[in-house]
Design a protein that fits this description.
By secondary structure, this protein is of the alpha+beta class. The chain contains two helices and two strands, in the order H-H-E-E.
Length: about 70
């Protein structure tokens, strides 16, 4: 399944609070723009990283990396 991808100009702001894609707004998709901001906060609180790669017309991939838990902790 292919997605619509995210415009390259919007990528630097994707994890900002209240950020919404222009294409979503034009399509009438509702939301507050808090989802990815929340995800980024949770990942960072766990000392992890999140990144995004997107190509308009092809789709978007998110990569989340979290450190392994210490089994003795």
């Amino acid at each position: 399944m292919k997605g619509s991808g995210i415009d390259q100009q919007e990528l630097p702001y994707l994890f900002d609070r209240f950020m919404r894609q222009k294409s979503s707004e034009l399509a009438g998709v509702h939301g507050a723009g808090l989802g990815l901001s929340f995800v980024k906060t949770v990942v960072e609180k766990h000392r992890g990283e999140i990144s995004v790669a997107s190509t308009p017309g092809e789709g978007t991939s998110f990569t989340m990396k979290l450190p392994m838990a210490d089994p003795l902790a």
